[in-house]
Amino acid sequence: MNGYWYGPYSYASYEPHVPVPQEQYEERMQTVLRLIQEAIENERHDEIFYECLISAAPTEQEKQVITSIWDDECKHRSLFRQIYTQLTSKRVSISGQEEPFHKPASYLEGIENALMDELKAFEKYRVIYKHIPVQFRDTIFEIMTDEMKHASYYNWLYSKNK
């Protein structure tokens, strides 16, 4: 035996590294950079939105939960800025065309919107994770797991207030 356990199948459970052709690499990096810019804009929008939810939260416990999520969103924006700078040697330029903030009609509607936004962010970050250079994957993984944690919290808040 060669030291690898293959389980019941005759192949390893991982895909071997296959070099990406240069033209595909550049295309993937452009996608990653565009998605990181969008993520920075979205994280900023989320910060503003969550400030509104914090002020509308009916209990101190709910305010603390949303505040912890807000803190994570600030951290994510900072991490994405650092990654962008390391990849490009430039500071990220935001389009300046932020979507206007619309206050939700109710606290429950805000929680529902926040839950869906967290799940959409996770999908976007999964694409970033797939195409970003390996040395940044741990950071993206941390952000992704935070987004899943936030979705769980919002699910709990939604069911608690429904």
Describe this structure in words.
By secondary structure, this protein is an all-alpha fold. It has one domain (22-91, 102-161): Ferritin (Up-down Bundle). 70% of the residues lie in helices and 0% in strands. It has helices at residues 22-56, 60-88, 107-131, 137-161. Helix 1 (22-56) packs antiparallel against helix 2. The longest helix has 35 residues, at 22-56. It starts with 21 loop residues before the first helix and ends with a helix.
Give the overall silhouette. Answer: elongated
Whole-number tally of structural domains: 1
Structural class: mainly alpha
The run of helices and strands is HHHH
What is the architecture at the second tier of CATH?
Answer: Up-down Bundle
The main sheet comes to: none
CATH fold title: Ferritin
Can you say what the CATH homologous superfamily is? Answer: Ferritin, core subunit, four-helix bundle
Mean pLDDT across residues: 88
Head-to-tail CA distance between termini: 57 Å
Percent strand: under 5%
- Give me the number of helical elements: 4
pLDDT < 50 runs, ≥5 residues: none
How many E-type strands?
A: 0
Helix content: over 70%
CATH class: Mainly Alpha
Radius of gyration: 19 Å
